[in-house]
Design a protein that fits this description.
There is one protein chain. The protein contains 55 helices and no strands. By secondary structure, it is an all-alpha fold. Among the domains are: 107 residues, Serine Threonine Protein Phosphatase 5, Tetratricopeptide repeat (Alpha Horseshoe); 169 residues, Leucine-rich Repeat Variant (Alpha Horseshoe), CATH 1.25.10; 148 residues, Leucine-rich Repeat Variant, CATH 1.25.10.10. The protein is globular and about 110 Å long. The N terminus and C terminus are likely disordered.
């Protein structure tokens, strides 16, 4: 039995160092973090090493704020450590804090005058700082001039608006932002906003404030001290979407400044900063929570505030989820969740069609963060207390409102909703309301029944108790009642899912219900609310293959569904997207193992059967029709949701479309790639995987520089690397490798990003795969990756990477051998160390023979190229080749006839060059120099 390795802080550091050398930055950060946690003496010199090493890994990951934070800690222990100073200087430079970076670089030179690495950095920073001083003067003049025009009330309106736009552009640069802040722009904006109630000037002012707060904690604190948090809440209180969005951006920027986050999809708060600014972060949460139930704000503002909570609630470092429960935030959300437009009383809240949907997402997000049983029990007790108080009130309004709140819960954290509805008397109360003559009670009861029938056991119970009530309600003359009853019947009729053998209602019932939903959907006289309920009805019925086929052939209904989605209204989200998922067969499918099917038959167990109309060719036809009708635009509009479950559904549809090669261009043209990127970085695990695979499929046959222009190409790397995981399917691995290969061929920045995101070891893992296509794809990526000097250094290290490439040169798969020989040709051309490594392989000569005698002329050419590189690299290496029969083979190649094979001319030419290279070391003589003895 092997000895157990004791993970001391030092061994963890060594493991971190090894991971760092291998380009595994995430793993190295993990080891250094464990070493820090293991060390009791927080002021020890060892601790300072762990911090500065982790800072180096953060630099590679481009997490510059984390790197600065770790360097700060290292320098608190050893104030003059040159490496910590150097790394902080690098991070500060990347954050465009050039003066601070220059200060650190000068300090490095003071501490270590012989440090050659800092000298070019110091020279570069000196030039930048000088140029910034020059620009400073120039920018200062511009800022002063623009301020003078923008805030002069008697100046021409158009000129003022242009000046304000120019100030916004200047505020996006750190120099401009700093000058504007010192020039008192915040105070001027504060005064102007009081006068400008609705205008472009007002929006630009708010955006300028957001830019001043971005990436600067000092300016953020200054802005808040001048205007205060209530100022932002006043700005957000608008019916204009632009005003609301600008204010929301400002508030998110303030949260980011205090927590160390950036406006990037994969940015996370820094624990140390969150602890330092705990009071300020807590104040922000309290202000947002109190605003949620503010009766004087607009519905748009309320939605925006809830969205801000959703965006930040899941960060453990902020601790907002538990604090929200403590601050009675759930009760406030229940007030929003119970709000009805039909009840317009003095203290009614203004809500939008999306408000309750957004509230349900927030309920879910908070519940997801209740990680232990006691926290969940506490969550439920707050909800239960609210409901109990409402039910104790005898009036009908309270019962209606509590039913609406329960419906909202059932569309959010379904476990909580089910617990509530399972309480004695609750379902009975709802069924009684459904049976009354009061239209409003019927309406809310119907909605609750639809939401409650989510689990099979609940559906069966409601089928027994409520079907007759729903059938009666469907006869109502009121469309609002009819459509809700119809959706209830649709949902109950679909609980068999996509199993063609289970039909809770009589044969043909689903098609009749589907026809009724389609009539509501395409009727131009029906309002938006009726149509979105019709879409929800179809979302249940389209699990039935016959309903899918009828719907896809009904072009007016498909167009109506897509137009409904294009509104981006969150209330329509579930119905539309689920219908699309069903049409594309993009739902989760249970894998049917043949052996298990036989066992089930033997045990006389039910086996789900797929309908023949769900065969692959039918699915492809449906997907193609949807794509050509513009479904991508609809998905882009709906992707603004904060619901991770909804994002997963959207990603599933995108992935189904991208599975068809000819449809990928449509997805890119209509903005699909842009919205897939954040979905691939944040959301449910399955959602991220589907979004990442869709991106991989796009990049397989569309130039990455076209599909993912600019910075987006670098950002798409991480989702692709995440697909190189053992839990992902072989197809997902393969498509990710193909796209990474294309990206790696673009430029050095792309190759650096693959390195920084820890892609190299994951890619190389697949070079050892038995599956030919995976091995080939991984080797092709490496062929492009070795163009990077940093990858060459890794291959020069203490490892067998170069030797394995030589082994792959003899692979039976021609394409794998071609790729491996290409990678080896690149390495041997630039690295003497890699040339020497070839001779460490016992079978090196046999492998060289395979290359030089390969029946494929292109691989043979690469083999000669490698041999030429080896001879040129050093006399020592050339001598090893001369001692073998390689020279004779080269000579034989020079004598090949023109008809030997296609491309023989360039092989002969290169073989001659290789022989001439050997001559320069005086290891062989020209034929005419040989004398007879």
């Amino acid at each position: 039995m092997g000895a157990t390795i004791v993970e001391t802080a030092e061994t963890l550091k060594d493991m971190g160092n090894e991971a760092f050398k291998n380009g595994e930055w995430d793993l190295s950060i993990d080891y250094y973090t464990k070493a820090i946690k293991k060390t009791e003496d927080k002021e020890s010199k060892e601790m300072h090493v762990y911090y500065k090493n982790r800072a180096a890994a953060y630099l590679k990951k481009e997490k510059y704020l984390n790197a600065v934070s770790d360097c700060d800690k290292a320098l608190e222990i050893v104030p003059t450590d040159p490496k910590a100073l150097f790394r902080r200087s690098q991070a500060l430079e990347s954050l465009e804090r050039y003066e601070e970076a220059y200060r650190d670089a000068r300090q490095v030179l003071n501490v270590d005058p012989t440090n050659k690495a800092i000298q070019p950095v110091l020279a570069r920073l000196h030039t930048i700082v000088q140029e910034r001083h020059r620009l400073n003067a120039s920018t200062s003049t511009k800022v002063t001039k623009m301020i003078e025009i923008a805030f002069k009330m008697e100046e021409d309106r158009e000129k003022r608006e242009t000046a304000m736009k120019n100030l916004l552009v200047l505020a996006r640069e750190s120099i401009g932002a700093e000058i504007m802040y010192k020039e008192g722009v915040v105070q001027k904006i504060n005064q102007l906003i009081k006068v400008e109630k609705k205008s472009n000037l007002r929006i630009q002012c708010v955006r300028i404030i957001g830019e001043l707060c971005r990436n600067s904690l000092d300016r953020t604190k200054g802005v808040i001290s001048i205007v205060g948090i209530p100022w932002f809440l006043e700005i957000i209180n608008s019916n204009q979407e632009e005003d609301v969005n600008a204010a929301q951006y400002c508030m998110q920027t303030i949260i980011n400044s205090y927590s160390g986050m950036e406006n990037k999809p994969d940015s996370k708060p820094i624990q140390e900063l969150c602890e330092k600014h705990k009071s300020e972060i807590d104040t922000l949460l309290s202000c947002l929570l109190h605003s949620v139930t503010n009766r004087t704000i607009t519905g748009l503002a309320r939605d925006s505030i809830m969205e801000l909570l959703i965006k930040n609630i899941h960060w453990d470092q902020l601790n907002w989820a538990e604090r929200l429960v403590e601050l009675k935030g759930l009760e406030r959300l229940m007030e929003v969740a119970s709000e009805l437009k039909e009840y317009k009383y003095e203290s009614a809240m203004d809500i939008t069609d999306s408000s309750r949907t957004i509230a349900s997402v927030l309920f879910s997000k908070v519940y997801e963060n209740m990680y232990y049983d006691k926290a969940r029990e506490n969550y439920f007790s707050h909800i239960q207390e609210y409901i109990k108080d409402k039910l104790l009130t005898p009036d009908i309004e309270s019962k209606v409102r509590v039913t609406v709140a329960i419906t909202t819960l059932l569309t959010g954290p379904i476990d909580v909703g089910n617990q509530v509805i399972a309480k004695e008397g609750v379902m009975e109360m709802i069924l009684v309301m459904a049976g009354t003559e009061d239209v409003l009670q019927q309406k809310v009861a119907c909605e609750c029944i639809v939401a409650a029938a989510s689990k099979k056991d609940k559906a069966l119970a409601i089928i027994k108790q409520g079907v007759n009530i729903l059938k009666e309600l469907y006869k109502s003359k009121n469309d609002e009642i009819r459509i809700r009853a119809l959706v209830g019947l649709c949902k109950l009729g679909s609980y068999g899912g996509n199993d063609a053998t289970i039909r809770p209602f009589a044969d043909g019932a689903n098609q009749k219900l589907g026809e009724a939903c389609r009539r509501f959907l395409i009727n131009p006289k029906k309002d938006y609310d009726t149509k979105r309920w019709a879409a929800e009805g179809l979302s249940y019925l389209t699990l039935d293959a016959e309903v899918k086929e009828k719907l896809i052939e009904d072009r007016p209904a498909i167009k109506a569904l897509i137009e409904l989605a294009k509104t981006g209204n969150q209330a329509a989200l579930y119905g539309v997207v689920t219908t699309l998922v069903n049409l594309c067969n993009a739902y989760e499918k249970q894998e049917m193992v043949p052996e298990m099917i036989e066992l089930a038959k033997f045990a006389k167990q039910h086996i789900p059967e797929e309908h023949e109309l769900d065969d692959a060719d039918f699915v492809t036809k449906r997907v193609t029709i949807l794509a050509k009708e513009g479904v991508t635009s609809a998905l882009v509009a709906l992707s603004k949701t904060e619901s991770n479950n909804s994002k997963e559904l959207i990603a599933r549809v995108f992935n189904a479309i991208c599975a068809e090669q000819e449809l990928r261009g449509i997805v890119v043209q209509q903005g699909g790639a842009k919205v897939l990127l954040p979905m691939a970085l944040e959301g449910t695990e399955k959602g991220k995987k589907h979004a990442a695979q869709a991106l991989a499929r796009i990049g397989v046959n569309i130039n990455p520089e076209v599909a993912f222009p600019g910075q987006r190409m670098l950002e798409v790397v991480r989702p692709l690397i995440n697909l190189l995981h053992p839990d992902c399917s072989g197809l997902e691995n393969f498509e990710a490798l193909l796209t990474l290969c294309n990206i790696a061929s673009c430029n050095e920045a792309a190759r650096q990003r693959i390195l920084k995101d820890g892609g190299l070891p994951r890619i190389e893992h697949f070079m050892y795969e038995e599956h030919t296509m995976l091995c080939r794809a991984a080797t092709q990526v490496i062929t492009n990756m070795v163009s990077s000097p940093d990858v060459v250094k890794i291959y020069e290290g203490d490892n067998d990477r170069t030797k394995y490439l030589l082994v792959l040169c003899g692979d039976e798969d021609k394409d794998t051998a071609f790729a491996a020989s290409g990678a080896l040709a690149t390495l041997t051309a630039v690295s003497e160390k890699c040339c020497k490594k070839i001779f460490e392989l016992k079978s090196w000569l046999e492998n060289i023979h395979c290359l030089l005698a390969n029946p494929n002329s292109e691989i043979m050419y690469r083999g000669v190229y490698i041999v030429n590189n080896l001879i040129n690299s050093s006399k020592e290496v050339a001598e090893k080749l001369i001692d073998t029969d390689v020279m004779e083979i080269l000579m034989a190649l020079t004598r090949l006839g023109d008809a030997a094979f296609e491309g023989v001319d360039k092989v002969r030419k290169l073989a001659n060059e290789a022989l001439k290279s050997a001559e320069k070391w005086n290891l062989i003589k020209k034929p005419e120099d040989v004398t007879e003895e």
